[in-house]
Amino acid sequence: MELIQLMREQDCVKYGDLRDSEGQFEKAIAAYDSALRIDPSDADAWFDKGLTLKKMGREKEAASCVETAINLYCGR
């Protein structure tokens, strides 16, 4: 299944997680971004995107994503 075929935000997150586990980090980021376009308040997508960005060495962006996720998890 290709990312373009995914319509539900949770499907995009799952696709991103799969791509991340395969080391396809750019595809994972694209999937998380798709999920966030559908639901910008999806804390799981923000958190997973942050983890992937960290693996890519993009520490500042990763920290921002994780902080956003924490704020959403905590209801801020």
Give descriptors for this structure.
mainly alpha, 76 residues
In short:
It contains four helices and no strands.
Question: Which fold name corresponds to the CATH topology?
Answer: Serine Threonine Protein Phosphatase 5, Tetratricopeptide repeat
CATH class category name = Mainly Alpha
Largest sheet: none
Task: Tell me the helix content.
Answer: over 70%
Which parts are unreliable, with pLDDT below 50 for 5 consecutive residues or more? none
Describe the fold and architecture.
With 76 residues, the chain is mostly helical. The protein has one domain: Tetratricopeptide repeat domain (Serine Threonine Protein Phosphatase 5, Tetratricopeptide repeat, Alpha Horseshoe), CATH 1.25.40. Helix content is 72%, strand content 0%. The chain has helices at 9-21, 25-38, 43-55, 59-73. Helix 1 (9-21) packs parallel to helix 3, helix 2 runs antiparallel to helix 3 (43-55) and helix 3 (43-55) runs antiparallel to helix 4. It starts with 8 loop residues before the first helix and ends with a helix.
